[in-house]
Specification:
Distance between the termini: 94 Å
Shape: extended
Radius of gyration: 32 Å
Strand content: over 45%
C-alpha cells in the first residue's frame, strides 16, 4: 500500500499523485500519469520498508525504449541531469546511491537492509512515458537476520547466528542514528572472525557517518582496541563474510553521549583539552588520577569539566614536522582507579594540534584502555597565529614606546620590534611586507610600501639583528608622507616558518609573487601599528 506524502513532491503542470510509503512485502509503483506523459517539475519520493530480517529487490518493469520510436522512457542526457530516477540503499536520499537512471535498464537493485528510497525528478521541459517498477522482499543472508536501522539511545548488534557460527557470504549493514546534539559510542564486546593479515575474507568496518561513503574509522577481523566514537549523530557498521571458513562472530553494544563531551582548543601558545566529568564517570575513571606525558602535569578539576591547559613546549609535548605542517601531541593518561565499575586498568587519550597555513587544525582524540578499549574521535579547531608589533625608543630595544599617537620628527629613525606569541621555540618570524597608510581602515587608495614580498622599497628601511627566532626587528625613517597627512599607520604581513629550514620563505629574502608560491611557510598574519604624527613646531 502506498501513502501519498504531499510535502515530498511538487507538480506544477498538474496535480498527479506520486511518492509515498510502501510497507508491504511486495508491491509496485509508477511515474505520475503513467503510461501517459509525466508532468514537468515532478519531485516524487517512494520510501520502501519491509521487515527487519529482509532486504528489498527492485526491478523496473517498463523502463525500456519505444520499439517504434527509438526513444527512451525519460528525457536522456549523458549525466541524467534533466529527468531521472535515483535509487538509494537506505531510508532516505542521504544514504548510498545505488544508481541514477534516465535510460533503458533491465538491471535489478537490491538493498543491504530492510529500507530503500526511490526518487523521481523531472525538469521544466520535455516529457516522456515514464516508468513502472515492482519490488519484493527477500530473506537476508539465507534467513539469518542482520543489519537495519537503530535510532534508540542505546542498543546492541551481533553477527547473524551469534554466538554460533555465522554463515558464509553474508553482508550486514547497521545504520545507527541519534539526536543531533549527541554522538555515538560503540564498543566491540566479543570478536572471533577468520583473521588473516589485512582481513581480506571476513571483516567488520566502522564508518563515522550515515553511510559507507563516510570516513572509515576502522576495518578489522581480529582482536583490537575495539571501541569507537562518532564525530556526529550517525555511525555505520558493516559486516561481510566470504564463501568459506566461519567463526563465532562478534557482538557489540552502543550508547549515546553529549556531543560536547570532549573539547580541544588549539592556539599558538597551548592546547586546551576539556573532558566532561560525566563521560569519565561512565567509563569508570577517576579524574583525579589523570596526568600528561609528564606525570607532574595534572588537570584542573571543575564541577563539570576536567581541563588540561598544555604549553606547546612543556609537559612532555611531542613536536613533529611534516612538510608544511607542525604537529603537537601529548597524552592524557590515568592510572588504576578504585572505582568498582572499572573494567579496564588504564585510560589513554592522545590529543594533537596541527599547525598549517594560518590556522591550527586537526585535533584528534584517541582513547585506549589497556588494549581493551579504544575511542577514536576527530575534532577540528581553528585559531590564528598571534603576534604584536611595537615602536622602541632606540636601537637597543630596551624601552618600548607607550605613547599613542607616537609623535616623531621628520626623517627621525624609528625602531620596530615584532614578537611572535608562541610557546614553541622552533618557529621563526619574518617580515614579508610593510605598508604605510594615512588611514587605519583603508589600505588600498593611498599607500606606501617600506618593503614588499621581502624586497625593500624604501631606502631608509633596514633589517636589524634579532636575539631569537620569534623576534624580528627593523628600522626606517619618518617619511614625507607626514607632510601631507596628519597621521600615518603601519601594517606588516609576517610569515611564520620552521626555524633553520633554509628552504622556507623566512630565509629566501626578496622574492617575486610567482617564486613565493614555491617557498614553504607555516602561515602568515597581519599586524598594525600607529598612528605616527609629526611633532609640533
Amino acid at each position: 500500500m502506498a501513502v501519498n506524502v504531499a510535502d515530498e513532491y511538487s507538480l506544477s503542470a498538474q496535480t498527479v499523485p506520486c511518492g509515498g510509503y510502501l510497507y508491504e512485502s511486495y508491491g509496485s509503483f509508477v511515474s505520475p500519469a503513467y503510461p501517459s506523459s509525466y508532468p514537468n517539475n515532478a519531485n516524487c519520493i517512494w520510501y520502501i520498508r519491509v521487515n527487519s530480517n529482509q532486504k528489498i529487490n527492485l526491478q523496473f518493469t517498463d523502463f525500456e525504449k519505444y520499439a517504434n520510436m527509438g526513444d527512451d522512457s525519460l528525457e536522456v542526457s549523458p549525466t541524467c541531469g534533466f529527468d531521472y530516477v535515483a535509487i538509494y540503499d537506505g531510508p532516505s536520499t542521504s544514504y548510498n546511491l545505488l544508481e541514477k537512471l534516465c535510460h533503458a535498464s533491465s538491471e535489478t537493485f537490491t538493498s543491504t537492509s530492510n529500507s530503500m528510497t526511490v526518487h523521481f525528478r523531472t525538469d521544466s521541459s520535455v516529457t516522456r512515458r515514464g516508468f513502472a517498477a515492482s519490488y519484493r522482499s527477500l530473506p537476508i543472508n539465507n534467513g539469518y537476520s542482520c543489519g537495519g536501522f537503530l535510532d534508540e539511545p542505546f542498543g546492541s548488534i551481533m553477527s547473524p547466528n551469534y554466538p554460533n557460527l555465522y554463515p558464509n557470504s553474508v553482508e550486514c549493514t547497521w545504520y545507527i542514528r541519534t539526536n543531533s546534539s549527541e554522538v555515538i559510542y560503540l564498543r566491540i564486546t566479543d570478536l572471533e572472525l577468520e583473521a588473516p593479515s589485512n582481513c581480506p575474507y571476513d571483516f567488520i568496518a566502522v564508518y563515522d557517518g550515515p553511510t559507507r561513503n563516510s570516513p572509515l574509522l576502522a576495518k578489522f577481523c581480529r582482536e583490537l582496541n575495539g571501541a569507537f566514537t562518532s564525530s556526529s549523530n550517525s555511525m555505520t557498521v558493516y559486516f561481510r563474510t566470504d564463501g568459506s571458513v566461519t567463526r563465532r562472530g562478534f557482538s557489540a553494544n552502543y550508547h549515546t553521549l553529549p556531543s560536547n563531551y570532549a573539547i580541544l582548543t588549539c592556539t599558538t601558545n597551548y592546547m586546551d583539552a576539556k573532558i566532561d566529568r560525566s563521560y569519565l564517570s561512565k567509563l569508570g575513571f577517576d579524574e583525579s588520577s589523570l596526568h600528561l606525558n609528564d606525570q607532574s602535569c595534572t588537570p584542573i578539576v571543575a564541577d563539570d569539566k576536567v581541563e588540561f591547559k598544555i604549553q606547546l613546549d612543556q609537559c612532555g609535548t611531542i613536536r613533529e614536522v611534516n612538510n608544511d605542517t607542525i604537529f603537537y601531541s601529548n597524552t592524557i593518561r590515568s592510572s588504576a582507579s578504585n572505582s568498582t565499575i572499572v573494567r579496564t586498568q588504564y585510560l589513554q587519550i592522545n590529543i594533537g594540534c596541527e599547525m598549517q597555513q594560518d590556522t591550527m587544525v586537526k585535533a584528534m582524540y584517541l582513547v585506549n584502555e589497556n588494549s581493551a578499549l579504544e575511542i577514536l574521535h576527530n575534532i577540528t579547531e581553528y585559531g590564528n597565529f598571534r603576534a604584536n608589533m611595537n615602536f622602541y625608543e632606540s636601537s637597543h630595544f630596551a624601552t618600548p614606546v607607550s605613547d599613542s599617537p607616537y609623535y616623531v620628527d621628520l626623517l627621525q629613525s624609528l625602531f620596530v620590534q615584532v614578537n611572535l606569541n608562541s610557546s614553541d621555540a622552533h618557529l621563526k618570524v619574518f617580515v614579508d611586507t610593510c605598508t604605510a597608510s594615512p588611514y587605519n581602515f583603508n589600505w588600498t587608495s593611498v599607500t606606501y610600501y617600506l618593503i614588499k614580498n621581502g624586497c625593500v622599497r624604501d631606502e631608509t628601511y633596514d633589517t636589524l639583528p634579532s636575539p631569537t627566532n620569534d623576534i624580528a626587528r627593523f628600522q626606517f625613517s619618518a617619511f614625507k608622507f607626514l607632510n601631507t597627512y596628519s597621521s600615518v599607520y603601519l601594517r606588516c604581513k609576517l610569515v611564520i616558518c620552521e626555524a633553520y629550514d633554509y628552504s622556507s620563505r623566512c630565509y629566501r629574502g626578496c622574492m617575486s609573487r610567482q617564486k613565493r608560491a614555491t617557498a614553504s611557510s607555516k602561515g602568515n598574519i597581519d599586524v598594525m601599528l600607529g598612528p605616527i604624527e609629526l611633532k609640533g613646531d
